Amino acid sequence: MGTFFEQLRASLAPEFLLERELGSGGMATVFLAHDVALDRPVAIKAMRPEDASAAAVARFHDEAQTLARLRHAHIVPVHATGMARGVGIPFYVMDYLAGETLEQRLRHGALPEAEASRLCDQLLDALAVAHRHGIVHRDIKPSNVFLEERGAILTDFGIAKRLERHEGALTAPGQLIGTPLYSPPEQSAGREVTPQTDLHAVGMVVYEALTGRAWMLEAPAAPNWHGVAGRLRVVLERALADSPAQRWRDAPAFQRAWQAATRGPSLGQRVRPAAIAAALLGAAWLLWPRGGGGVSDLRIEALAAGGGSQVALLGDSLAAFIAQRLTGFPDFSVAGPGQPGRARDVVRGTITAAGASLRITLRLRERRFTVVTTVDDWRTGGDLLADSLLLRVFGGSALDAEVPVRVLPRGPEGLQGFLVAEKLLAASHWREAYDAYDAAITLDSTCWLCIWRHKETGRWLGQSDDSAGIRQALAHIALFPPGYQSLIRVDTLPLLARFDTLSELHQRSPAFLFGEFRHGDELMHRGPLIGRARGEAAQYFQAALNLRPDFAPAVEHQLWLAVLEADGPGAGSALDALLRISQPQQLTSGLPEMLQVAFAWQFLPAAEAEARTRAAMDEARRKSIGALDVGARYMNGFMVPHGAVWIGRRLEAEPRYGRSALIAQVFGQVQMGRFEAAARDLDRLGSKYPDPATAVLRLELDGVRRLFIEPKADSAPTALIDDLTQIGGATNQPVGLRQRARWLAEIVNCRLPVHNRTGEPAPGGAYPAVLSRLLLACHRAEAGRVQEAVDMTGPLTELTAWPIRGFPAFRTMLHLLRADWLMRTGREGSAAKEMLWAENFDQATLPSGDPQPMEVDWAFRPWARWRRVELQRSSARRADLCPLAASIERVWRGGEAPFAALADSAARIGVALDCAVPVT
Q: Does residue 248 sit in the same domain as residue 115?
């Protein structure tokens, strides 16, 4: 290590403390280091100075960028990259993998079949992501695969190729890229490499894992298959074909075939008939899709068998296998043999053995599908038949009128891409589904459903509004089935009309999965803006699950809603359901981690919540989920501000999260009634990240407090108005920021006048129309025309976050003003309903940048709840008031004196209502 180690250690300190060398190869060395900020071990890969040619440095940078683009549980994640100070060599920081490599493990012999099968599945899962990003690894070998508790981790993308560009500048003519012993034929010959090159390499690695023997040392012309089960050999032989054209089409195709081959024993094994029967019946039970006794689109009946007792056992198993392959598509439901309920169409068939051959025939209406395979390879035959049925179902003549066949891809490749995306969506793999829909659109740009689903998936991921996707769907709306037409129009409607349309759709098509799910989604996120209790969403999520019990997005949203509603038992049940139908540890949206953290801060003691939060953050980092600050800011939406502040404190030191982490803390402190602490956090925010918008945010929060929470009649807010007016008149500031400050100054002056009013502002004025309308209504209310103010601001309650994202305090001002006006007209019930607005979860994008309207709403949610308690104490049910009082006491306990006093008042109300006694 010597001088280079010492120089590098000095260069990387104090952020990273280099400890020892882990290994060296090629042109770089890997070191174990300690990440001081995060208090965890990491691995740092650095190029050796003597090898740092221009081409080598370019390739090293390329490797870091490649890994940074790939976020997957089975690909080693890169956290940071840079140039070592003083040494002038590139490095990057990745997870420290404490496990052994596959090469080290194989020194002790071959892996058990189950372990080798998991290895294959995980490597293919990782490559599917890499290939979707246009990256070919080119150096898959046992030494580049680590075996960790979480499974196989693929490393060393140092010679990976990006398919979208020519790499001649980084590779010398005639240079052999890769490791000779693990280079597929075309790579060894210096020919073009493709994703199929990686699949061949996986085949070689898995062959060695199963046998303990290297493929290239086994004379591939006549390999020794001893130690490889026949059903696995069929799959590997295709992967190891010399010609790329003869191999599996892509990693998902290889993976599906492999998964099918590894499910249970084959009929070719010499076991007693009773054991075969038990195994097949058990497999059939596991494979049958779970569901109720509703109406399915298709039933797969047990196949009539001929040719011996062993083949007869396949009748149920093969039908169950095909039913399982057809399960998981949101627009189409399938029942296996023996399941209850009716079906619109039935598939029947026969299975006959003749020697080593197996002939399987299925019949659906007038169509017949036949495949000839071997007894050992019956699952592959089942795959082919399932694909044929899928093409029939989603082809030009649909079996179900609601299957949107006219807006699907026209060719088999595009259709296959669409079906892959559909299954990913149904399993809540949001990010992967989004990418898969994008890939399907690339294959067929006329897949209008792909475009609309891509837009919807992006919305659920919290991305910006995809107006282009909406326009394309609207342009082809006549091609969609009626249910989809209603959903497409929903995106163009204001909130009241949106909910009317969804209610009509529910009445007209109660069996339309996406109609029920979207209805619940809208109610949970935006219903409170128009006075609808978000708890109403529960019935629609349940309706979606009655239609598709395995539709993971509905279960996730059930869990989300239960945590929002502080329903501990409901949240526990939803989490159990999610674990049954999905694998949250493999989901990369970050949603499972966020919900677990919110659950912990909502229901568990602080010490346990902190421990679980650390574990969830580590899991998110392991999966390369980058938006940890989003989770911190969402905690305020779950009304667990202590969690927002705790997470924000730990992320504040990280440059990528610092500003957002401070914003999370500011809103958390306000929600807890700690305005002085919020001011200190705003000072740190302004100092570390200078931005005039920070000063405006401070004044907005102070303005809401002065106007609605602690109005002081004997103290006119002169300084507040003057500060806002000064910012509003600063010509060196952006126009939008000046408008924001001037408008707030006018609203404050309208309510607590400092300067003489000059009459109503001119319509349109110097502000966007919605701001001018609320200001005009304020002036009319102060002039005694209160009902007119209420009427003219009614349409403003339908504004979602997107059009007002530049004025984050606008919606809070709107609803607090309207509630005040409604009380002045004697309508206390309506005023309490208005205060529901703060329960919204309506976002424009993920909260990682500037403050959003919903975050200001959340900051004052405890105040809105307190006003609801005051207004409804004599009229509302104890079951409604007790949770409100309890949440107020929990959040404001420990706040500044006025809020701590209100927490005491809430506690006394809880005692008076006998809230400690369960409601029956």
A: yes
What's the rounded Cα separation, in Å, for the pair 487 and 505? Answer: 9
With vertex at residue 573, the alpha carbon angle to CA 570 and CA 579, rounded to the nearest 5 degrees, is 140
Strand partners for 81: 92
pLDDT(496) > 80: yes
Query: Domain total for the chain?
Result: 8
| 108 and 255 together in one domain | yes
Alpha helices (H) along 262-411: 273-287, 309-312, 314-325, 378-393
pLDDT (tens digit per residue) in 837-857: 999 999 988 899 999 999 999
The mean per-residue pLDDT over the stretch 526-533 comes to 96
Sheet with strand 100-101: strands edge to edge? 100-101, 145-148, 151-154
Q: Which of 62, 139, 550, 629 is catalytic?
A: 139
The answer to whether residue 217 is domain-embedded is yes
- Model confidence at 423, pLDDT cuts 50, 70, 90, reads confident
DSSP per residue over 714-754, as a string? TS--HHHHHHHHHHHT-TTS-HHHHHHHHHHHHHHHHHS-S
Its domain, for residue 503, covers 493-576
Q: Tell me, yes or no, whether 271 lies in a domain.
A: no
Which H/E stretch holds residue 619?
helix 606-622
- Residue 148, strand partner residues: 151
Q: Does residue 859 surpass a pLDDT of 60? A: yes
CA–CA gap between residue 216 and residue 240 (Å, rounded) = 11
In a domain, 270, yes or no: no
Residues 815, 837 contacting (CB under 8 angstroms): yes
- 219 belongs to a structural domain: yes
Q: Is 139 a catalytic residue?
A: yes
Three-class SS of residue 174?
coil
**Top-confidence residue, 615 or 165:** 615
Compute and round to an integer the Cα radius of gyration of the chain: 31
Mean pLDDT (whole number) for 794-811: 93
Residue where a domain stops, chosen among 370, 393, 416: 393
Given a cut of 60, whether residue 562 has pLDDT beyond it is yes
Note whether 646 and 626 are same-domain residues. Answer: yes
